[in-house]
């Protein structure tokens, strides 16, 4: 079953609209909550008057920051740690009177319906004292009065750095030293389904049904936020309409949980608008990179230096993990004896940066891969040749975090496929010396990406299997289907290991922390690797139990080896009992009945690096400042493909996100307040089908020894390389190096003007 | 925690109306199904015309018996068997054109709402060919043309018999031989919530949410009824409003499952009215008993003979199991060297007999215990003394089914308590020679009852426990809370074995066959005994895993013995780590994390007999034919009481049912058609609070070695002895022996007239 393009197990449900999302499950007479957001970018609430709202008919409860527990809690979807040093930064309250960004949550209304709730919000009177707003990290890092958080006088949430070899000496010895500064914008996930949850109480416990990637983590954080035992919280995750990392954060679930406790446990819905999703959930961190490199006469990198400045926004969320992840990747993949890296993550008065597909790597990849082209150009070398010269072939491992290793490394094969598809050599020459207003170019970029989070953080996954009377199995996981096809590939894994077909595997789609095995959820590109390891182990245990039970039924089978194939038990090459007959016996035998189940909770102490590249051919209309993508391909080494068709779809989606990152998407903030100016799907230029060229997904399949089925990361990687590949193609077409994405018409026009092209 | 009257875990939910029952969970835009019932008592459908119904606006689908799968399936809530001989009788189709009783199901309508569905039913035109109706088993057993089922020319579903010693010789040698015929009526469970279910399709499978006692069995029977793999069915059981055995049968769930497949998997509700519940679900079998006994000079039983005739009604359902259960009890408890027993179960054209609290024992107990009084009277002996003389003291076991044994036997203690409470000796004398229209009497009856169904049938139970981060546990069972307090006592069991408190045990109330461990469900009086055994074992496994994990955290603890008490791990008498800290470590340790869970699926090959008695004092108004119960007590030996308050409530409820069985409840059928004449809660005289005297529950607690916590049956026993105790009190008061219950005014008047009292 592994390696086959079986249809998604949820295809029919989703196509027919029958799949149940959170909104579809709302209980009858569910109250509605709405959040009051601050209308200043930095300051404090001097006074808040809710009296008019409270007396409105249909208003059930109004709470303000005065009413919520006053201890802080962390929100990111990381596994917790029992070690203080590894715990996430706890800097958020359910509601706050200390406004840190435009839109901060200061009060909430619970009402009988949406309209009353909205009207009640308008009746709340707030007086503020305003402080200066700082939206730029490289300014904020010199401090503000008062500090944004705690006593952090420099507003630096965290800084990390490392030295390998002697960079200064390397630079001195270099034939050429190149420097560049690269900037990435704030973008947003734009999942179809905005965050939505509803909460109610049951037997003294709080139940939250929510559109999340991480139900078990949401459970923990609600416990932390409300200061109640975590076992008193139950989180249920139905089908969700995308997440891309935004729902790898605990968003409004703790507030929703708190609100139901304020109305006697009645069900309360808290869903938010698209505008709130842009402003009040999470974004991709904007990061600035100062890069420098020294190369020797042969064009080999002999020194690299990176200093990065990540804009955290107003709350820590995933915090420094994103910038640190980028910093780690600076020392991977390209061989170089002397490397220095330094990363800052800095609080500002802007919307909060969190997890987003690629977790810092799209940013750093944009910087590095633009820079690699710029270095190649400086030494007059073909950028592909330059990369091939400097890339590590075969196995390599991270210096500091050894389990992170390229156990298989298909990058050279990927480059070959990509170059062939785009006709690299031919077109690099053909487009070398163009004139005129419309010019073409080819560009490329590559990346590496670690699959799970070990050993930076814990990797643990659980699985439970139960054999039904008809020989089919129930599969339960804490890992989540978030649109990526997880339920399908997990089912394939079980079918593979039990040597059966898809019809015999019934996966539980809804996660319920009361009954689903513990798993930290859908993030990184971990699930098919980490959870897959648990699933395989669990299926092996069940298979062994089945065969052991078969032996009790078949005492005459003594020396022959039993195996499970095609829903039969085989003794050597003879079919001896069908799995269905065995299963029925296991349920109903009067002499020896015991339903066969298997469960594992498995810590996974391994990791592996996936790789890949993007090649793009673009046509640039210099006068219009318009990029047309003519051809684009991603080629991935993600190990063995579990389901080629799903893999291809995953790549298509990621490329769409990467192209948007390259040419159109950015959340623009008002300089004075930090307020988003285009936080809606009309003004925020998400790629649509009309903007999307034919896109091509290529693969280099190598069985990875660490992957449970030879597989490596494929969830996030597709989103990484397209933006720098497009930028490099524009450089090739026009000779103009744009060091900040997205390459919007305005940015292009400005650049071309500056370069004298118009 | 065992033995404490902790509050019900669902008390708050139920008192506040927040507990979710099936009706509360209906999905939006749920279609409504209604069933067309035959209006003849026996015959065939010659033609059925649905065309007018089909064209009605809002009618989505009409199906008739022509449209359903034509293989038969069994309905009773028994564990399945892999042996053909032990499988239940399969004699039912989803709909039928062969009408076997008034109200048989011949067609169904699915419509947009209830009103349209009801109107559509009236538009269906049916022509019948009628056969003679037979509602009396002792006539039906001589056959009908055509037979009611199959080729059973005698309409006898089953017959069983046994011989112990030589009954004829015993009768010959007896000083006195007494004979009597006793009859019990058809009664109904009258649970508050009528059967209700809804069904829909999900990923090609059928989901049925239903008010049932036996979700895992419903799953299997739907599979059998529709002829689909059982794994393709998912059954979910929310809170239910009582069952008492009626919901230990698979009722309309298979039809409901079928109907959703006929409307493309859209959700379809099928709930039925109170009238349908009386007529079309299940009832308690009416049974007639011909009894004879020979006693020697000392008043010792030396021969006993029973021939019983059970009215099965039109379909097999639980079938002969009920009559056979009664037959078994004839050879238990009272010592007698020569015993004969014979039981017939006979099809008739009446509503179907099924499981009901006590499963045949209320019937046979009425017969036996009336008979014991009649024998005592015949030999001029005090009936209590007569019983004491003949009862077995201490251990006894069933001759044929040895694991069924009174491993502890508190009957003499129970009798002592009951007699003291009712002032037996004093009042037997005081009321001996009364005259006048209003007379008083005291009577009593006793019983024995086996706890589970082993070895007659399979006993298997599953349990899963998972340790939360805060040291609390999640408990999952396939066993069901049906109002009896199961969730509470299971939680107590876990708290007891893990030595924690109730707040640390979170039980999963809803059973879902996709995820709940396999358990056959709530019937017999099995759950606290059979499931309790699994729960205890599961908790012991988890405790051992916790202690083993503690050892890995505390390498310095070498020789000291670890134990788990009060949410701490103790090394000898020192508290070394809290359970919460250990649990958090088990989730999040970077070196050794594995969430601690335990699961068992356990066949339970043991059984044990509970016992008890009822003593009643009544006042009989001879002219009005009215019985007033002055005092009544049940005294039970049910082993160790798990929760004394819940036990008392269980006894109160059972006594209410027993008193109704004694004096007011009966389903009256029309002689010509078999149609229920009083199948509603107005005309069917259920006991109300106004009819109910102060009732008293007494207990004799003996730790039973078979019970996981010393416990024995208490679910059904309370319903058994009250009816004959009241009848015997009336006999004492008036000298008139009524051999048929209930003792309604009309029956009393008739009896007193016949006896010359009026």
UniProtKB/TrEMBL annotation, chains A, B:
Aldehyde oxidase/xanthine dehydrogenase a/b hammerhead domain ranges (all copies): 16-132
Protein name: Xanthine dehydrogenase, molybdenum binding subunit apoprotein
Originating organism: Blautia obeum A2-162
Entry's Gene Ontology cellular component terms: xanthine dehydrogenase complex
Gene Ontology molecular-function annotations: iron ion binding; xanthine dehydrogenase activity
EC number: 1.17.1.4
Origin: domain of life: Bacteria
SUPFAM superfamilies membership: CO dehydrogenase molybdoprotein N-domain-like, Molybdenum cofactor-binding domain
Pfam families on file: Ald_Xan_dh_C, MoCoBD_1, MoCoBD_2
Keywords per UniProt: Molybdenum, Oxidoreductase
Gene3D superfamilies tied to this protein: Aldehyde oxidase/xanthine dehydrogenase, a/b hammerhead (3.90.1170.50), Aldehyde oxidase/xanthine dehydrogenase, molybdopterin binding domain (3.30.365.10)
UniProt-listed InterPro entries: Ald_Oxase/Xan_DH_a/b, Ald_Oxase/Xan_DH_a/b_sf, Ald_Oxase/xanthine_DH-like, AldOxase/xan_DH_MoCoBD1, AldOxase/xan_DH_MoCoBD2, AldOxase/xan_DH_Mopterin-bd_sf, XdhA_XDHase
Lineage per the UniProt record: Bacteria, Bacillati, Bacillota, Clostridia, Lachnospirales
